[in-house]
Structures are given as structure tokens and as C-alpha cells.
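User: ok so my PI wants both of these folded by tonight, can you help

Assistant: No problem, let's get them done. Here's the first:
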Amino acid sequence: MGPGARTRFRRWTALLAIAWALASLIAGVQAKLEARERALLPFSFSSAAGVHVINELCEDVELGGIASRDRLVAVGGMPTGEWLRSGMPGLEIGRDVAVRVEKPDGTELTAAVPAISSHQGDYPYARLAIVAIPFVGLIYLVIGLGVWLLKPDRRESWVFLLFCAVTSSLLTLVGSALGLVWLFVGITIPFVGATAFHLFTTYPIEPAWIVRHPQLRAVVYACAAGLAALMIARPLLGPSADAVDAAATSFAVGMALLCLGIAITERLRRPSTKTAERADVMLIGGLLSFVPIIVAIGVHATVGTTFTWTLSMALFFLFPAAVGYGIVRRDLFDLRLVARSSAAYGAATLAITGAFAALITLAAGGLRKFDVDARTPMFSLVFIPIAIFAFNPLLRRVQRIVDDVFDRERRAYRRAVREISEAMVSMLSAKEIVERILIAVTDTMGVERALVMLHGDSGDVLRPTASRGDWDPEALALELEPDHPVCRQLWMQRQELARGDFDDESDPETRSACQDAFDTLDVELLVPILFGVDLLGIIAVGRKLTSERLGPDERQLLRTLANQSAIAIENAKAFDEIAQLNKTLEARVEERTRELRDTQAQLVQSEKMRSLGQLVAGVAHELNNPIGFVHANLQLLEDYVERLMRPDVDGARRVRTRDAIEKLLSRSQEGAQRVKQIVQDLRTFSRTDQAELTQVSVNEAIQRTLALMEPRTKHGIVVERDLGELPEVRCYSGQLNQVFMNLLMNACDALDGHGKITVRTRPAQNGVVLEFADDGPGMSPEVRSRVFEPFFTTKPVGKGTGLGLSISHGIVERHGGTMSVESEPGHGARFTIRLPLAPPPELESGAA
């Protein structure tokens, strides 16, 4: 089955499952409405696996020895199952009906009981089940639809929707399984087991045996379809109909137990990874949801219950919530830490509450010895506030102790970060810095092994510099080019990455290359060492000795460690350069002075190229499309030219071949023109433009800058252009391009991938007004007042130089204009630039 056919199959089966769920919902609601006017037996009973157990009794009616936990065998001479499927015939309010029950000891009893109205019987458990369980069914359907809509292209979302829709159908019919509704229930039950098997063998871990034999899923669905067909044919089966009910229920229960077994087995085979963590979430949700139902059905079918077994489905919503959370979210919370801390809090609170109750009891007993009634209002008003006042400090103290116990690792990490930071200040050797990193990762965090990759002497390849732990020779020989997909992703994402982070990568070559690097190193995380826009190195972190996944605290330590090491490595490089300079100081004073003058003169251009560098990956992707298109056309063109040169080609075919060549040339020219335009935009942006002032169309300059920014804005950021008719402005075009690029880059960073940027231009008296606004988080008054200061930045270490807005502000001022900012926390930011049509005389004379 091809990708297109597979997509259509999933879409149609999903729509069919949703339609079945909605039809079941309508049938269930209609049956419940009709039940309000129907005559009922003077007791409630629940059914499962062909067994019907009496739960609650109507206290105002003589039942002739019928009691809770009796099995309802027949009503009005008809077997109970057949009687229910027939719509409960023979019941009229006030008239007696003969019922036959089987006692827990095996004896049978026949009694005549009066039929009552639905308003006479008070069955709390049954009424609660009728309201609560269909509501759980609605939760199933909503969660399944939500996950499918959020992740429509993922297989597990489709399978999860099938399971949720089928289970929702069953739950919404609880308490109304009569007549036609009974048929809905009978068809649905086996498919609950089949879809559960499909889900547990698909997400989050697909067992190796199901990969080798995927047809097993089809076998399970075929069994479910066969049982559903038998359910439809029940009226023709006579006394064997109850056996079909039992078989369908047993199939569903057996599939549930099998699914839990699969989840447990596959989880035990996996190390502590993100996939294993999703398996933990799914397994916990399954245990809390399935086990109570399986136990309740077992008790119902063996010894009977005094309440309807369907109440065990009240916690059933935990399973879709857990699975849906795991499918949608990439990073999950630390379940073990939450469970341990919650249990500790619960135990401590329970102990203190018990001590509090014991104290009140002892006080009441003591007061009774002195003939004082401890139930008097005075006792409550005086003693209980005193006890609360005495126990509240104790409760707070116990909570602090619990916090200290579970915060021990965090405090150890914070101490390690402080010690490492203090130590790295004095380190001026890259080798010493790397060794300190490895010690911190392996000893402090308990990681089995770690490796640091830095640029070699040539500076063009990342290769292992130092390592701790056992490593394969292949891993220690790995070299990564700067343009390797792993390096690009670490540079662009600017955070640690795991192998699972590439599961959703749309480009198969990038995904394969990144996963191959992880497989070669066999590590859990790769952490980038970034300084500014440069990727200095990579910290490869193995798994913890405890086999637990690296949690948020460890990841934060790794990020801090990488930032500190980046600064230390740069300091070490600077120290090496200074030491080298000291050897030939006199000979290089003039050279360094010239370099400093050049650096000062090129500061504006350097900052602009830093911004441009952040867009290189996106622009490269934009270039690949037309280049690939032209390449493909050239291959076709070669075939057509060869065909045209053949002497045996007739005239009509030659004409068609020439037409095809003309079309290929035309399309190739369009692709080349697109490449030329992108390159022209890059050249226009990147040139220094210090030679001469030119008349510039500001709107065109903004459009070019937005075209370069398209890779950052086309996935979630809306750019609204409101460009008015403007006169041309005499300026340095490249410098203004840098101002526009800096403002747009800052807006994208503030929006973090989602939001709106508005660019507005208007003519003004002897000039133009340009506005760049975003609907991001905005700035506080303190940040707003310092935003144009050199080296001031709110970004983390390594993510910003603090020069962009300062340089932009200087460029605008040198052109005789002004640049201002308006911003409030939570209301975005708006930068306003006012430029004259002609620059000041000193700029004309070349003083800029």
C-alpha cells in the first residue's frame, strides 16, 4: 500500500470509527430517555460475560427472598439475555412478573415480583454509573479527536483515535443496553480488544515480533469481526446466545491482559529513554484503568457484587489522558520523582493528621475524667485552635524535611555548578577545561561515560578531544563536519538534543544522518558548546549508572556547564593568543593596531554578518529547491537533445521534442532566476556599501530583508506588511538592511516561533517613518530604558552579543534620523524609525 492509499485508508477508517461512536451516543441517549417511562424490575442488576447479577434492591417492595449478589437467570419465562435483547417484554407497572434467580450456593429460587416505575426505585450505584460512565466515554472521544487533530500525520494518533472511538461507543451505551442498543454493545465489545491490541503494539514501543509479523494485527481484527458477526446472529442461536456474550467479553478482557503483558515486557527490555518514559506513562495509565475493570468483571462473574461493576470504569479516563499526553508532548515530567515526593507528602500529612486526631481524643478523654463534656462549644473554640497552632509549625517542618530529601540532588547540582564555575575562572588550558567537564558529567551526575568533541588544529572538523568511560574505537574516531546535520541542528536549536528528537524530522536524509551519529556514539544526549554564533564543541553524554533518564535538573546542569565551558574555552584561546603575542610583542604592535582599527571600522558589518549567519541554514534550503529543479530539467534536456540528434526521428516528433526543450529551458530559466534573486538579496544585504550614498527605495529594501527572513517566519509567524507610497531615501543601503534585519531577528526571537510581526511605512514631512511591531511578551521599563546600550542583552550566555540594537541606533542617528521603542510587559514592542530624505552633510562628506 502506497503512502497516498495508506493516508486515505487511515482517514476513512477514522471517520468510520467516529461515526460509529456518534451513532452509539445517539442510541444511548435515546434509550435513556425512553427508559424514564418504562416499567422496571424492583431491583438493579449488571451484566457481563453472559452473567447477570442483582446489585441493589427496592426496599419498599416484597421480593420473596431475592437478595443482592443473586444471579438473574430468567424473567417471565425467558432467559435474561434474550429478555434484555427483546426489550424487556412483559413488564407493566403494578403487575407481577415471575423471575428466577440462582443463589450464591447454587440453589435456584422463583418468585413473583411487581414491576415498578422508574421513579420508584432508588439505586444510587446504578444511577451514578448511568451518568458517570457515558461522561467518561465522551472524554475518550474528545481526547482521541484532539490528539488526531494535533498530530494527524502520525500512525499512533490514528490508532489511538480508533481505540478511543470504539471504547467511547461502549461507554456511552452503559445502562441502556436494550433491544437495538444491545446489538451496538455486542458488536463493539470485541473491537475494543482488537483496537487495544493495535494500540499497545504500535505505541510507544513496537515489539520486534509484530514488526516481523504485522499480519497478527489483521488476525486479531478478524477474530473481533467474527465475534461481532456472531453477535448480530444471536437471535438465530437460541440458548447459545449467552455463550457468545461470554466469548466476546472474554476476548476483550483477554486482549486487555495481553496488552498489559506486552507493555510490561517491552518496557523491561528498554533502557531509560524518552520512549521508555512514554511507555511508563502508558503503562501506569493502563494499570490504573484496566486492572480495576478486569478485577470487577472477575468478581462480578464469580461471587457477584452489591454494586454495578461498571463503576470500575470511572477511572478509565486516565488511560486516554496518559496516552494522549505521551503522543502530543515530547518532554515528559519525571514520574518517579513525582510519585516518590507525593507519597512522602501523603505519608507525612497522614501521620500528622493521625497525631492531631489522637491528641484531640486524649484531651477529650482527660476532660471527661474531670466531668467536663468535651463536646461543648467552648472545648471546640478553645482547644482546636490551640492544637492547630501547635501542629502547623510541625507540618511546615515536616514539609521542609521532605523538600530537603527530594531536593538533595538539586542542591548537589547547584554546588557542583558553583564549584565548576569558580574553578574554570582560573583555568587557561583547554585540556584542563575538558577534563573538568568530564569529571563533572561522570562523577557529579553519575553518568557511565562522557566525551567532548572540539575543533582540531585545522578548525574545520569536530573530533573527540577527551573521554571518560568505555568507548568503542568507532566512536572515538568519529569526525563531524561543520555542515553535518547534527552540527546544524545543535547550532540552530541551541539546546541539548536526544535521538528521539529527530523522530519527527520531515527530511529522511537529515533524520538518518542524525540518528546514525547517535547510534555510533551510543549516547543519550548531545549538548552544544556555543559561544555567540559559533559552535565550539559538543558534549556527548551517556546514560546514568542507575539506568534512569537524565531529568530536567541534569539537563539544566549540562546547559550551564556548556555555557561556562564555552566562556572558559574562549578565555583559554584568548590567553594562548596573548601568550603568543607576548613572544613577539614589539613586532606585532603595529599589526595589532591596524587590526583594531579594521575591527572598529568593520563592527557594523560584523554584527550584520552575525545576523546573516543565523539565516544561512534556512537560505540554503531555499536555494536547494530551485537548484534541484534545474538539475532535474538538465537531465531531461540531455535526453531530448540526444533524441533530436537521431536521424530516424520524423518531423512531427522533432517538433514535439523542440517544444519540450523550449519548455524545459523556460522552466530552468525560472529556477535560475530564483537562485539569482536569492543570491542578489544576500549580496545586497552583506556588502559594506561604504563607498557611496545611493537613492534607495526603503520598501524594496524591507521586502528583500523579509525574503531572507522567510525561513524563520514561515512556520508559525505571520508577517503583516502595510507599506505606504514612499519617496526614495539617500542613504547607505547595506547599513539600513542591517537595521531592518536586526529588528526582525529580535522580533522572531521574542515570538519564539508563534505570533505576528507588523511592518508599517508612511511618508512624513521631508522624510519617512518606519514601524516594526510584534505581539510578543514585551519589555519591562528597566529593559526598555537600556535596550540601546552597547553589550546589553536579555538573552542567555552565548545567544546574543548585545551589539545589534546599539549599532542599529547608531546607524539611524548617523543618517540624521531617530529610533525609539514603545513596549509594555505582555503587550509586545514597537520600534519606530524616522529618517530624512537626505543625510546630514558630514555623512555626505564620507565621515560615516
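One down. Here's the second:
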Amino acid sequence: MVDYITTAFHSFIALLDTSSVLMLFLILGFGYLIGGIRIGAFSLGPVAGVLFAGLFFGHFGLRLAPTTQSLGFALFIFSVGYQAGPRFFSAIKEDGVKYFLLTLVVAACALSIAIVAAKILQLEPGFSAGLLAGGLTSSPTLAAAQDAVREGTVALQTPLSDDEIIGNIATGYAITYIFGLTGLITMLKFMPRLMGMDLVADCKRLEQEQQPGLKPVNVTMRCYRVTNEDMVQYTLRELRTKYCDRIPVLKVVRDNKLVELKPSEHLQLGDVIELIAPRAFFTPEVAAIGEEMPVGRPIEEETDTAQVVVTNKEIFGHTLGDLDIPQSFGILVMHVTKDGLRLPHSYDLALNKGDVITVVGPAQRVDAFGEYIGDIERDISETDMVPFAFGIAAGVAIGLLSVTIGGIALSLGNAGGLLCSGLIIGYLHSIRPTFGRLPEGASWLLMEFGLLLFMAGIGLRAGGNFLATLQESGISLILAGITVTVIPLVIAYLFGTKVLKLSPGILMGALTGAMTSGASLRVVTGEAQSSIPTIGYAGTYAFGNVLLMIAGPIILLF
């Protein structure tokens, strides 16, 4: 029976060796299954799951075609740049100095520690880059380091071949990644308590200061006739502040005619108030306005949903409260996203270039709002493939360019070229959303699929000597990886609180962004019981991708 199972397994491996497509999607499928396993609140996630699935199959000598891994690499790095582009350039010019400095501290500390650890442990060339990338769980660092070796942008004085160095990078990353991920998540869970902070209370305080509004879901319309004499003593502005929380669209009908009341004017008995708002808004306190009336027309006639991209320079820095969109334009704000992250819905949320506001209201009012704010998009599902295809081609071409200084040829390599082209096209899309359109779902798929293709190749390559390296120097690598994870996190936390004066809720999210760890962000928001940390994450994420990608080739020089 054992011999039969062994024979069947070897036949299965031989089949996978003849069909790279079958092998690849089995690795992706098993990777998602492994990554979805939960132990308490902890799970590896798909990236680590695919890495381990690749390690298993790689142990039996299976490999991914270089072109397949290169395709995944190109999709991932370009998508990283595209997503970071709108925020990266504007953050440099605006209030991003704090976030940049925090990210720089994380990158510099981690780079220094990895260099020292590699020297002390006398690691072979390549292991230091894997140590840095794994300790920070930074896929951009890993990709940039391997690309620098493959393209020859970093000249290494070593008898090892490029393939051996790339293998060392992959193996070092695989050994340290899992402990980097668990260590980072553990630190983020317990750091607030160790540092004596109440993360939940701090985020609640920030939410109260920002006067968070309701997050509209299930929009409906209701009408009330003003029969309560107490209502006529309030101006329209006071009424909206006291009873309506400035969230709903409010219209006044008097003598069967729609009237445009100024904020300083009062209601009259008999006026009919039309409110368009989420269902959760209609509480008994709101019903105290007066007798509820039947709605004369279906809500569908009043609603059109669209995404509006902020591109008007006059809007940059203004808050949702400044704009008072429901009253000024007669439409509801559903939510605001920045760099693909949904931010807390609050009146004090400042808008910047590339932010996307999802609104609901009459089509003509949505159009007017879109013209004022920037550009409007409705039900867009198609990707603008021309800038996407030529953008990747341009990135590869940029990477091939080199400049000779002092007899040394310098070039960005594929990683730097693709990142640059992605940043530029993402930025141009924020200026003119009809150019380089990449819907949110398509962006996620390209970035996720590209990363997992790349990680499958990393796992397969590292699987051949993973166990041998683990037995020989695994404990030392693991301990070094833990220091790369923990020490920069602590130093950056102290720098953020003592020097930058960031609030704990914002800072904890910013630390996860500086390490480009989306999995850790979910942990922080869960611990905070709030989405406030996403503000900090969005501030550092773009800088983290760029700085950590630069760190990958740099560490190979030491």
C-alpha cells in the first residue's frame, strides 16, 4: 500500500512537471487554503500560504518558467506604482513630511540591522536581502533585490552565480517571512498595552473630535409635515445640526412648491420636509419634526450612484464639513477612499488629489458635483489597456537604460523602471481619470495575481535547499529576522510619538503602512475597534513601497 501511494505521488509530481499551468494553479489554490486557516484571530494570508505551497512542491524539484515569474513580477510592481502614484507625488508637496520621515526611520533602521546581522552571521551573498525582505514582510524589497541581481544592476564580487544568489535571497526570505509576519502582528497587538496606551479610547476620541457621520447604507426617502411648534424656532442650519447631523439631503416644500431656504431662515408650520438618508438615520428624535407623510415618488427617481475623483486644486485640503455636500449639492456621501482604502466618514476628513468620493443623488446634481470636484465615473468596468500595456513596456525599457559613472554602469533595473512608470501613470490618472483607467476590482486582481505568481516562483526556487539551510543556520536567521522586525518598529514608534507627535491611533496604522503590511493593518483596526488607523496607513504606504524597494538593491552592496 505504501509503495502504491509513493508511486502514485511520484507520478503526480511528474505530471506537474509537464504542465506548468496545472502546477501553478494548484499552488495558488493550496496557498489560499493554507492562508485561510485560522488559529484564533491569526491567519497566514494568501501570500504566506502560496509561499509555503511553493516550498512544498519546490522540494521535489519543480520549478516555474522564468517568463511566468517575470510576468507576475511586472504586474505586481507596476500595480504597486499605479496605486501609490496619486498619493506619492501630492504627499511630497503637502503634509507628507511626517509620514515620509516615519517611513524613512523604519527603512533605515531595518536596513542597518540586516547589514550588521549578515556580517555577524557571515551569511552568503543574497541572504541579507532575504533577511531584510522577510523581516519586514516586504514583497517589493524581495522583488527589487532579485531583479537587481538578475539584471546586473548591482555588481557583486563573489564566486557564486546569479542563480545561487537569487536562490539565497529566496531562501532567506522564506525562512524569515513567517516569523516576520507573526512577530509583526504580535508586536502590533501588544505594543499599545506595553506602551501604556489605550488604543480604543484614543480612536474613539479622534472619532468624536472629527464628528463622524453615519456611513450611509440602504438609502431611503421620508417626508415629514412640520406640526411640532418647537421646530419653527430653529434656523435651517440649527435644525440640520441638532436633528439631522448634517448627513441627509434636506428639501423643503411649502404650498406644494419646492423652496430654497437659506441656512439662516426658519421653517414654518405646515412645511413638508423631504429627507434622503440611510435607514439608520431615521430615529424617533428625527420623527419628532412632525407628522410623517407618504412619499410622492419612488426613491429610485432621486438616486444615481457615481464615483467622483478629486482633481480640482481648489478642493485640496478642504474637509467634507467645509464642502457640506448634502446641503450644497443635494447628494449623499457614501464613503471616501484613498489609495484603495476606505477612510472614516467624518466631517473633518481632508480631501486631496486622487481621493475618490462615492455619492448618491439625482443624476444632474451628481454631474454638477463631479464638474466642481473633478471627474465623475459611473459603472466603469473596463480597463484602459493602452496606457496599461505601454506603461509596463515603458517601465521595462526604462529599466534597461544605464548611465556610466566612474566606470560603473548604473540603471534602475526592471523593478525601478516599472515602479516609475506605474507611479507616473497612476499620477496622470488622478489628474485625468479618463486616462489609464483601472477599476478597483481589476487593480486588486492584477496586483494580487501578479504578487502570487511571483511568490509561487519564490517558493519553488527556495524549496530545493530550504530544509538544508534551515538545519544549518535557521535559528540564527530566524533570530536575526525577529530583530529586523521588532527593533525598527519600536524605534519608529518612539520617533512617531516623541518627535512627530502623532496620535497612537494614527501612528499604529502608519507603522503598518511603512512596512507595507495590509494583513497587519487589519489587526490594528481590529484592536482599535475603529477605521481611524487607515488614515495613517494611507499616509505611509506609498513611501513604504518606494523606500523599501530601493533598500533591496542597496543591501546587496554590503
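The chain has two domains: 2-204+394-555, 211-300. Residues 2-204+394-555 form one domain. Good luck tonight!
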